[in-house]
Design brief:
single chain, RNA helicase activity, Rossmann fold, eight-stranded mixed sheet, six-stranded parallel sheet, DNA-binding, alpha/beta
DNA sequence: AAAAAAG
């Protein structure tokens, strides 16, 4: 138990400088730079005869001008002896509700072996120690491999990234090998796959994942996001890019500078797709997808993933899709039974002292010594700075991340949090979505969000890949409008709802407050086409054809933890 | 009302 940071909390803790670990190889030898993509991936997978456990050192590969080995990156927290490995730890679920709709839905698979992803990718799946596909992967991968557009709704931490990456990588190996590759540095990068995400850190994380999945396949992966110097990203782009991971702002910039072109895009994936299409982002996304040369729906394959998918956003999204399949896996949003949700009534003026009580209690209990990280969400950037400062002054090892910090500061904060150097991180919604931070045992909503979907994503930073997690919310008077949707969400997740919250929800039921999705019920989302039968005509002209018999199914999926979103 | 993303 001595491993808990809290054991040392009485002492004055100076902000520890986190041990920096290499996150990204920076140098690629000249011999590697313009290597053309082979039609046959096996050429790049000389290990297929070696055992799955054999991983060559990056040193020897660098020496031979190969990909640096992304599997060698030493994860943090190794001193605690936590073996993440496959992270298989699911007993809680027997029935995962699954909804699919759309025409001719391909059948799900039960194992990776059933799917013909190709030798190179299969080896990387083994290297990642993924044993079985997660429920969303079981359904989404066959759908994508069949070439279908997809709108997928699956719990946080359930393996969405791999679900859209595997078909892309497999498809590029299979179908794009004959593509003429530039023999020399090309000024304009022409990726065949584009993966967009709403924050820089999430794009960076996806980039790291994609590199693992495409190791030794010959596929070139690059990342582009703002806040970082342009030159390194440009250098990477000049080497040729098959899969580009990006945030919208920097991507538009690169396109307008004629350093990236979208004419050859065959695969488009939007992670956190509902966020990408909300008010703030939608114009940019529409520009990228519709006005900058990308092939139209039908000429490309489009995949949208999120844990939440309000039907207004689904309607917007259908513009980007052609004859798509809707997939919903798991219960409402994130709330797996793995996350224990608590709500406490706390007046705004009492929040800080209440937080301190909570932090002290966590020390006293000695629980979560291996799930020691605490993520505290606040509403504003200023609030994040001020709470971080207050925590530090009071001897708590805290850091903070928000959009007014410089990108190096943001990345440093995340590293320092992940490593456990500062096991408390105060964050705005910049950290609410998609980030996979192992060992987050406790998410505290110091300020609750206005939108219940944001709550779902925030608490989804814990309870990932089969690990349990705790989520505590400080509910104050200003959160009245959230009472109804919050209590409904908690009930659907089999959580105990305090009486005061129920009556609060009762009182505000006729007023504002976004109720849970139309159709309600047990699913994280419903195909909006079901409730708006004929209003969904999109530019592609594809219309929804109800096919209840084959189009709608309940799966009996046993979760085995593997990759995450 | 706020957050994010371009600089």
């Amino acid at each position: 138990m001595a491993a808990s940071w809290a054991d040392e909390m009485g002492e004055v803790v100076k902000p520890a400088s986190a041990p920096s670990r290499p996150t990204r190889p920076s140098y690629v030898p000249p011999a590697r730079r313009n290597k053309p993509l082979s039609a046959d991936a096996r050429e790049y997978c000389p290990l297929s005869s070696a055992g799955p456990d054999f991983i060559p050192s990056s040193r020897s590969h660098r020496a031979r001008g190969r990909d640096p080995n992304p599997f060698e990156i030493v994860e943090t927290f190794s001193e605690l002896g936590v073996s993440d490995g496959g992270g298989i730890n699911f007993d809680a679920y027997d029935d995962i509700p699954v909804e699919t709709s759309g025409a001719d839905v391909p059948l799900p698979v039960n194992t990776f072996a059933e799917i013909d992803l190709g030798d190179a990718l299969n080896e990387n799946i083994k290297r990642c120690k993924y044993v079985k596909p997660t429920p969303v992967q079981r359904y989404a991968i066959p759908i994508s491999l069949a070439g279908r557009d997809l709108m997928a709704c699956a719990q946080t931490g359930s393996g969405k990234t791999a679900a859209f990456c595997f078909p892309i990588i497999s498809g590029i190996i299979r179908h794009c090998g004959l593509r003429q590759r530039p023999a020399r540095k090309a000024r304009i990068a022409n990726p065949v796959a584009l993966i967009l995400s709403p924050t820089r850190e999430l794009s960076s994380q996806i980039h790291d994942e994609v590199k693992k999945f495409s190791y030794l396949t010959g596929i070139k992966v690059a990342v582009a996001y703002g806040g970082a110097p342009m030159y390194q990203q440009l250098r990477d782009l000049e080497k040729g890019v098959d899969i580009l991971v990006a945030t919208p702002g920097r991507l538009v910039d690169l396109i307008e500078r004629a350093r990236v072109a979208l004419q050859e895009i065959k695969y488009l994936a939007l992670d956190e797709a509902d966020r990408m299409l909300d008010m703030g982002f939608e114009p940019q996304i529409r520009k990228i997808v519709e006005q900058l040369g990308m092939p139209p729906p039908g000429m490309r394959q489009t995949m949208l993933f999120s844990a939440t998918f309000p039907s207004e956003i689904q309607r917007l999204a259908s513009d980007f899709l052609s004859n798509y399949i809707f997939l919903a896996v798991g219960r409402v949003g994130s709330s797996t039974d793995l996350i224990s949700q608590r709500v406490e009534y706390v007046r705004d003026v009492d929040k800080r002292s209440h937080l301190m009580d909570l932090l002290h209690a966590q020390r006293a209990n000695g629980i979560y010594s291996k799930q020691a990280l605490i993520l505290v969400f606040v509403e504003t950037k200023r609030g994040a700075d001020s709470l971080e400062n207050w925590l530090c002054v009071n001897g708590f090892p805290a850091t903070a991340i928000h959009g007014d910090r410089t990108q190096p500061e943001r990345e440093q904060a995340l590293r320092s949090f992940k490593s456990g150097a500062t096991p408390i991180m105060v964050a705005t919604d910049v950290a609410a979505r998609g980030l996979d931070i192992p060992h987050v045992g406790h998410v505290i909503n110091f300020d609750l969000p206005k939108d219940i979907d944001d709550y779902v994503h925030r608490i989804g930073r814990t309870g990932r890949a089969g690990k349990p997690g705790l989520a505590t919310a400080f509910f104050s008077d200003v959160n009245q409008p959230l009472a109804k949707s919050l209590s409904e969400l908690m009930q659907e997740a089999n959580q105990e709802v305090p009486d005061w919250l129920l009556s609060c929800a009762q009182r505000s039921s006729y007023g504002g407050g976004k109720s849970r999705r139309a159709g309600g019920g047990r699913f994280g989302g419903h195909d909006y086409r079901r409730s708006h039968s004929y209003s969904g005509g999109s530019s592609s002209g594809a219309s929804y054809q109800p096919q209840p018999a084959q189009g709608y199914s309940f799966g009996n999926a046993s979760i085995i933890a593997t990759g995450w979103d």
